[in-house]
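Chain entry —
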Amino acid sequence: MKKGLFTLALLLSVGLMSTAQQVEFEEFDLDNGLHVILHQDNTAPVVSTSVMYNVGGKDGDRERTGFAHFFEHLLFEGSENIDRGEFMKIIPANGGTFNANTSQDRTYYFEVFPSNKLELALWLESERMLHPVIDQVGVDTQNEVVKEEKRQRSGSPYGGLFEALGSNLFKVHPYKDPNIGYMEHLDAATLEEFNAFFDTYYGPNNAVLVIAGDIDMAKTKKLVTAYFSEVKPRPEVVRNFLKEEPITETIKAQAFDENIQIPAILATYRTPGFASRDAYVLDMISTYLSGGKSSVLYKKIVDEQKQALQLQAVNIPQMDYNIFTIFAIPSGETSLDTILEEIDEEIVIMQNELIAERDYQKLINQFENQFVNANASIVGIAESLATNYLLKGDVNLINKEIDIYRSITREEIQAVAKKYLSKNQRVEIEYLPKKDDQ
């Protein structure tokens, strides 16, 4: 979701620094279970208010997929005290901006205001949590919005890549279903089902509130208590997702896209979730393979051999399982099999030899730069605090996550490449132009 007018662009990058500095924060809980994290930075008169709910595409009935993404839109409809459509007018009218997004694991809302509008931001988020209006008019309206979003995604070249990854890499875990859901599920859903979903997942004890920026700590704590204490806690959410069996031999699959003329190849692996140490190592491996024009695969296959128009290795972060995938679009007459052979050649080298010390130091520098940039704005800090608390279980990762990357050795990179990136552990997806008879 991308909405709102941005009137504070010059102030959002407050705190940019050439070297990382400690991010200070305070935490407390309300009696209803809402966890609150405060970060004070009085450099500029800007405040970010955000709520992350522990609900995503993986949650809910598998015959009613896409509910979390649907609620990302639906909870902008209004509340008992905010008329329909007014939510998205109030914020820009008061000099602010807002946005929301949903992943398979969580839903995130945030507003950025001049700091003298903090109380307004807290009221808006408490209204969303306390008593939103969930009625048939709102459901019908947002159903059309989601359908249009779905059409835009499926109508863009290579727009079905993520759906192809999920459906082929997962068989029993709900990551197999697209985050946006299936339209027939949303069409068939009743108003009672939508209300039940809200009652299950949108309680204060299943969320974290983060306020970052130009605030007074004592005053902010009082305001949070005043606006959110009334919200009733919900029963604890219990999840028992089925586990995937390991992949022990290469799985070959095909997916089709009517919007492309050039095929693509994906070599994709199911790897540990983002909180695991091995996931951090795989982050480094993906960057080593394709992070920039001097990276191993890009330099070899795209730049020197001219065998691919585009190539990228990425470790897609998810809570239960990450998706490590290498994606390439061939150039000219180069076959998909040839691309795979070239990719595998470099992976085998990684598995049998230590990467060069110079490449290793380059990786460390890249991750240090990413770490600094992530904490260079109050918006980035707020989302990092929320994610680290709700999904990774350690708020202070905002300060020490870079130490994890620094502690990873060349030997560990080699070992993790051996452990997860062999041919017999992957799904090979040929992503092909769709013909009329398919």
